[in-house]
Structure formats: C-alpha cells, structure tokens
Amino acid sequence: MSPYQNHRKLPKKRPGRFLKFVDETSLGALVVYGLMVYVGAVVTISLIEFAAFNFFGLQWVKSSSGGPIDFWDMIYFNFVTILTVGYGDISPHGFGRTLSTLEALFGVGLFAGGVSLLTVKALRPAPNTIVFSKYAYYCLEEQRFMVIFLNTSVSRLENCTISSYFKIGRNWQVSPAVSPPFLTTAVQTFFVDSHTEDEIREKLMDGDCLRVCVSGNLLGSEVAASVQYKPHEILVLQSRTFIAKYEPFWRPNFGDPEFFEMFHYKPEGAQTLAERFALN
C-alpha cells in the first residue's frame, strides 16, 4: 500500500491510549509506577533465579567471599545489576553473564525512558492552562457571540490562535481565525461569530452549538483548549459593557468566590439563546 493511502486504512484499535494515560496521570503517580516496575522486575527475576538454584541446581551467581547466596542476596544482586551499579561483591559467571547483561540493558532502557517521560510530563502545560467560562454570550447591540476565558499560568501565551464556528440550522458556519500575538494572564473576552437576531430566530434548531478553540505557545510548549456551548449555555445580553467588572482581576485568586462569580457571569433574569428564540 502506498504511504499516501495510509489515511484510508483504519487502525485495529484507537491509538493514543498510552499518551492519554500519561496526560491524565500525575507526575508523582508516574514516579511511583516507575519504581513499581523496577521493584517488580527485580523480585520476579530473583524468584526465578532462586527457584533455579534450589530446585534445579543451576548456579550462575557467586559471592566474592565464597559463602552461600540466599534470596535477599539475589534481591540485592539484581537491584545492583538493573541499576547498572555493579559493586562486584556478588558477580555472575557462565550463563549468568548473559542474563545480567540483558538485565542491565533493560534497566538502562527503563531508566532512559522513565526520565524522558517524566521530563515531558514536567514540562507539559497543565490541562487547565486555558479555562473557559461556563457561559458564552450573545450581545444584542453587536449581534455577535462573545467568549470569556483565562490563561491560568503565570506566563503569557505567545503566537495564539482563536478559531470558532457556529452550527445553525444543520450548517457549520466557520469564522476566520483570530491571531493575537500574545495573551496575558488577565481574563480574556473575545467576539467570535457574527449572526443577526433574524437569522438565529429563523434557523436555530436543537443540536446547534458554538465551538471555540484557543491555542498558543507557553514557554516553548504548545497548549490548546476547546469548548462547546449549546443554546441553553449561551446567555443573551444587551451589550458587552459588563466586562468592565473584570478589570480589577489582573492576576486573580482562583479561589476567590467574587472572582468565580464574575468569571462565570450570569446576571439575574438573563435569558439563554434557547429561551429567547423559543427553542424547544
């Protein structure tokens, strides 16, 4: 099959499960899992070797003192081998040299892979680097949708892109992407799709939605987040003047109830898009 036809071939299973697991697992948990793999490998190998010594008389490890080797000596020897330390007080001989070489190669590969994985995990932006408000807004004066989101990191996002599209009447209407040079750590408010009230009233259907994606570069790493707002999650407001409330929150305290209420702004009596345009 030509490599240009690979996009037509379905995989046998969904790819990316390991990456999804790493993304959803904390750094501390990954360290614990790595230690468990090391300990598990050492204990398993030691049990096999100890059984071979005692039940089959196969002896491929010897002590420099010439004394007998018990199970805990095997644990110690295999930890030293898999960590590629090699003190020499217990050493392999004969066929044991081949096994110890393979064990050391496994340990080096496991260590290198673990360090690489933890480095990527540590430098990877947090999943909630970009957080959206619970609501999107339709401003009547501008007849445009507006979204509110926050860069929760302590550094600004560079080379950003904000793309959006509104599904109305079974048709996807894609707006040109907006490319601000950077986004600060303050609350961000952006107009996205433009639609008249008459168009929405005429075409709005159950299943329509507004989708928004924000991406950018955070200290050399790519970060992106997307959100979907259904009509009952889009509030209808007269104008965008309420955004002045966000100005005092340059670097907000995320645990502040006042900020939480403002970020998820919902004035009393505000109608949703579904309610205003009588969507059942």
What count of structural domains?
2
CATH topology name of the largest domain: Immunoglobulin-like
| Fraction of helical residues | 25-40%
Q: Architecture of the largest domain in CATH?
A: Sandwich
Content of β-strand: 25-35%
Give a description of the structure.
It is a single chain. The protein folds into two domains: 3-123, Helix Hairpins (Orthogonal Bundle), CATH 1.10.287.70; 130-276, Immunoglobulin-like (Sandwich). The strands form three sheets. Strands 3, 4, 5, 9, 12 and 13 form a six-stranded mixed sheet that branches. With 280 residues, it is of the alpha+beta class. The two termini are 50 Å apart. Helices cover 34% and strands 26% of the residues. Helix 2 runs antiparallel to helix 4.
Give the SSE layout.
Elements: H1 17-24, H2 27-55, E1 61-63, H3 71-82, E2 90-92, H4 95-123, E3 130-132, E4 136-139, E5 144-151, E6 157-168, E7 171-174, E8 182-183, E9 187-194, H5 197-203, E10 209-218, E11 221-229, E12 234-237, H6 257-263, E13 271-272, H7 273-276
Parallel strand pairs: 4-12
Antiparallel strand pairs: 1-2, 3-5, 4-5, 5-9, 6-7, 6-8, 6-10, 10-11, 12-13
Helix pairs in contact: 2-3, 2-4
